[in-house]
Write a structure and sequence with these properties.
The complex is a heterotrimer of chains A (272), B (382) and C (175). Chain A has 272 residues and is of the alpha/beta class. Helices cover 40% and strands 18% of the residues of chain A. Chain A has one domain (3-270): 3-Layer(aba) Sandwich (Rossmann fold). Chain A has helices at residues 24-38, 57-60, 73-83, 95-101, 103-112, 157-164, 177-189, 203-209, 215-225, 229-233, 237-240, 257-270, and strands at 45-49, 64-67, 88-94, 116-122, 125-126, 132-133, 168-173, 194-199, 226-228, 244-251. In chain A, strands 2-1-3-4-8-7-10-9 form an 8-stranded mixed beta sheet, sandwiched between helices. A two-stranded antiparallel sheet of chain A has the order 5-6. Chain A is globular and about 65 Å long. Chain B folds into 2 domains: 4-188, Rossmann fold (3-Layer(aba) Sandwich), CATH 3.40.50.970; 267-381, Rossmann fold, CATH 3.40.50.920. Helices cover 38% and strands 22% of the residues of chain B. In chain B, α1 (10-21) packs parallel to α6 and α10 crosses α13 (368-381). The relative contact order of chain B is 0.12. Chain C is of the alpha/beta class and 175 residues long. Chain C has 6 helices and 6 strands, in the order βαβββαββαααα. A 6-stranded mixed beta sheet of chain C has the order 2-3-1-4-5-6, sandwiched between helices. In chain C, β4, α2 and β5 form a beta-alpha-beta unit. In chain C, α1 (17-30) crosses α4 and α3 crosses α6. The longest helix of chain C is centred in the first third of the chain and has 14 residues, at 17-30. Classes of the chains: A alpha/beta (272), B alpha/beta (382), C alpha/beta (175). Chains in contact: A-B, B-C.
Chain lengths: 272, 382, 175
């Protein structure tokens, strides 16, 4: 780690609780680098998380940080952002936290286009509770609660966020780190609800159950499965199966929620 | 502003009280019979520069309220039984993380969807123990529209002072009835704000008991001293710990900040108890029926009185204890439920009094006649 | 015991009886009295049985509901049948004339409230205000000045003249 990045970490809280080979540290590092590149005011950043391995990240990060209840990070973050729109509010969440128990909050935060950046540590498994299938676990994969193979269909979180109204939507991976940092930078600079899904790895629970037992093998798999948005455009649905499409999907300038509310205050006070 | 005399609804008085207390954030979800509180907050908050948001569900409303409070605003939500159930996990989060907030529960008939438009007092125990684990909580219950106004302010004051969620336990009758109220001048309203850390604290620890009163000063996100808040058991720095000593100390402090201040927190009212043989213990709108019954029974020569609990939790054991100094032999606990508060009253009475229940759970307010009949029945049996 | 007058206004949802109760309570307050208004309603916003209750007293009001009403106003037969037994002996039953008079120990005042609203005032929606006029003319429970001010304070802007007319047409139904 570069010396100048140390101030963004709570060094006394390290080492972290994550397993060797876990991708969460890479995403946390990418968030820190994006913040540093943008020279954002450390005191005006508030990082909110829910429950799960990924949601422990804010505890290591030297900002205003809030570790909430399972799935509810975006609800708490909405209250924070409304109460103090000057704060840059970032939600760090996992695929279980964000797509299962917190799915409703994701849809509605996106719909409101509230200025919050959400980054999903998407490792396709519940890690904290030791390996149950999540809504992101591919069909046919194994998990402790899918001992005969997963029959649930997974879905595309980026498509969900976009159709719900998110105004910046992108996907990166823990293999393509320089690109990931750029995507997070764009998300942080964006005014409105920005969403970055990050293809992540969990060697301990996903890898071992699914015959990809080493971090290196998992990383290589992510590398091999990844294709760009441009390439994906030319492929059929069949050809896209099993691929991770990475890059920017959507960007739009639209009215932001807290700015719209500020107008309501003006109207209400003008009518006095 | 001069005297303000008007016909006002309970739910309206709640919003007036909240804004007078300094509420500047409301998050909620539509639910009968509390909806007017959301509607009026939506209208009135922006006028004072405050914020209103209708969230996607009850759980999110509670989360947003806690988030806003952590960012420095006085925040409130209102709901009824089903929504109150959904909010419980996040209420527990606020208890542990010591985030001031006010939760209004306008009780309706339950369980489940129950009787959405009809009154009940069936959430007495849920208000105390609805969220899991040992936790402190303050629950207060108004009987009139004016008291809704006063108690909403009190709910904010207690919540801010002790850094604890405060539940305003209303019922459909008091929430929807309109009555003549005279509101106090705003200058005469006591407002308590949360204790802030001294600006000179260089190494602010968000859960350190700096003042020895068990209540840590509270910074807001964005104040300039970044800090961490978690729903995990934490030490005074706010970071997780599984150390038995840290755990025990934290839970003891959370409880003691309430239980060491019972005289400051607890309020109750007695009517004609000094020479009463039978005292009716009650709260909320039921107290109005009891009051009428006491008046009528006194005219007939019955030695009967009323103990009205304004504070439900922490339970006012002192009020029961004081009755041992009187001629009281019988207690009747009148409540619109199958019998909830009575268990705590019995425990508090500890065999000193005979304790009888007057319970009604059919969606109708207990009538004065029903109270009278019960007192007569107890008098015959005693 | 304190002097309390218990009034029940009943009809179907959408007839504005809850508003009528609020206006009556506000008029009582303008007269310097105490008043409490409560209501009961079903899940439907329109139709169904609707009931608004007002207690007026010179003393403070404890029990906020009607035990036995001194006055019952019924604008539908369904409401009359439902609530007539809650009327005191010799209590006043004000009925819309479209409803058949029941047998019972009541003083019955049968007047064309709905028809007056529709035909004389020209809007059936103001039947609640016509009813208030009739009720107050027959009982004098609040002053004429207070009810007029209370009506004008509560009705939507632009409808003041209409509602004033409704109130006075209601008054005139009782001579």
């Amino acid at each position: 780690m570069r010396k100048e990045l140390e101030r963004y970490f709570r060094k006394d809280k390290l080492p972290h609780i994550w397993c060797p080979g876990c991708g969460h540290g890479i995403i946390t590092g990418a968030v820190i680098r994006a913040i540093d590149n943008l020279k954002l005011d450390q005191n005006k950043i508030c990082i909110v998380s829910g429950i799960g391995c990924s949601s422990r990240a804010p505890g290591y990060m030297n900002f205003n940080t809030l570790h909430t209840t399972h799935g509810r990070a975006l609800a708490f973050a909405t209250g924070i952002k409304m109460a103090n729109p000057e704060l840059k509010v970032i939600v760090l969440t996992g695929d279980g936290d964000c797509a299962a128990i917190g799915g409703n909050h994701l849809i509605h935060a996106a719909r409101r286009n509230i200025d919050i950046t959400t980054i999903v540590f998407n490792n396709s498994i519940y890690g904290m509770t030791s390996g149950q299938y999540s809504p992101m676990t591919p069909k046919g994969a194994f998990a402790t609660t899918a001992p005969y193979g997963n029959i649930d269909r997974n879905f595309d979180l980026c498509k969900l966020a976009q159709s719900a109204g998110a105004t910046y939507v992108a996907r990166g991976t823990v293999y393509h780190v320089p690109q990931l940092i750029k995507l997070i930078e764009k998300a942080l600079k964006h005014k409105g609800f920005s969403f970055v899904d990050v293809a992540d790895i969990c060697p301990t629970y996903f890898g071992r159950k699914n015959k990809v037992p080493t971090p290196v093998a998992m990383m290589e798999k992510i590398r091999d499965m990844s294709i760009t948005v441009k390439t994906a455009e030319k492929l059929s649905a069949e050809e896209l199966s099993g691929k991770i499409v990475i890059g920017e999907f959507y960007e739009e300038n639209a009215l932001e929620f807290t700015e719209e509310y500020a107008k309501i205050i003006k109207t209400a006070q003008g009518g006095k | 502003m001069g005297k303000r005399v008007m016909l006002m609804q309970g739910n309206e008085a709640c919003v007036e009280g909240a804004i007078a207390a300094g509420m500047r954030f409301y998050a909620g979800y539509p639910i009968t019979p509390s909806t007017e509180i959301a509607e009026l907050s939506a209208e009135k908050l922006p006028k004072v520069g405050g914020k209103f948001i209708q969230m996607e569900d009850e759980i999110a409303s509670m989360g947003a309220v806690i988030g806003a409070s952590l960012a420095g605003l006085k925040a409130m939500t209102a709901t009824s039984g089903p929504g109150f159930s959904l909010k419980q996990e996040n209420i527990g989060f606020a208890c542990l993380t010591e985030v001031p907030c006010v939760i209004v529960n306008v009780q309706r008939g339950g369980p489940s969807t129950g009787l959405p438009t009809l009154p009940a007092q069936g959430d007495v125990m849920q208000a105390r123990w609805g969220t899991h684990g040992d936790h402190p909580i303050i629950v207060i219950s108004p009987s009139s529209v004016r008291e809704v106004f006063d108690m909403t302010i009190k709910a904010f004051n207690l919540s801010e002072k002790y850094r604890v969620p405060c539940i305003l336990l209303m019922d459909e009758v008091v929430a929807h009835m309109r009555e003549k109220v005279e509101l106090p001048e705003e200058l005469n309203i006591e407002i308590i704000n949360r204790k802030k850390p001294k600006a000179s604290l260089p190494d602010y620890k968000p859960y350190k008991d700096y003042d020895g009163d068990g209540i840590p000063p509270m910074a807001a996100f964005g104040d300039g001293t970044p800090f961490h808040v978690t729903g995990l058991i934490h030490d005074e720095t706010g970071f997780p710990s599984t150390d038995p000593k840290v755990t025990e100390n934290l839970l003891n402090r959370l409880m003691n900040k309430i239980y060491n201040n019972l005289d400051d927190i607890i309020e109750y009212e007695t009517v004609d108890t000094a020479d009463a043989n039978t005292v009716i213990v009650t709260f909320g709108s039921t107290a109005r029926s009891v009051l009428r019954a006491v008046k009528l029974l006194r005219q007939e020569g019955f030695k009967v009185g009323m103990l009205r609990l304004k504070t439900i939790w922490p339970f006012p054991h002192k009020a029961i204890n004081e009755l041992t100094q009187t001629a009281t032999k019988n207690l009747i606990v009148a409540e619109m439920n199958y019998g909830q508060l009575i268990e705590t009253v019995k425990a508090s009475a500890d065999g000193v009094f005979k304790v009888y229940g007057l319970n009604k759970y059919n969606g109708e307010l207990i009538t004065p006649q029903e109270v009278i009949d019960k007192v007569r029945e107890v008098a015959v049996n005693a | 015991m304190d002097e309390r007058i218990e009034i029940r206004l009943s009809g179907s949802g959408g007839q504005g009886l809850i508003l009528a109760g609020i206006i009556l309570a506000e008029a009582a307050i303008l007269d310097g009295k105490n008043a409490v208004q409560t209501q009961s309603y079903g899940p439907e916003a329109r139709g169904g049985a609707s009931r608004s209750e007002v207690i007026i007293s010179n003393e403070s009001i404890d029990y906020p509901k009607v035990s036995k009403s001194d006055i019952l106003l019924a604008l539908t037969e369904e409401a009359m049948l439902k609530y007539k037994n809650g009327l005191k002996e010799n209590g006043l039953l004000i009925l819309d004339s479209s409803i058949e008079k029941p047998d019972g120990p009541y003083k019955i005042l049968s007047v064309p409230i709905l028809k007056t609203a529709q035909e004389k005032v020209g809007k059936s929606i103001v039947a609640n205000i016509v009813a208030l006029g009739t009720l107050i003319s027959a009982t004098k429970i609040v002053s004429k000045e207070a009810i007029e001010k209370a009506v004008l304070d509560r009705v939507p802007k632009g409808t003041e003249e209409l509602n004033k007319k409704a109130l006075y047409e209601g008054y005139k139904l009782v001579s």
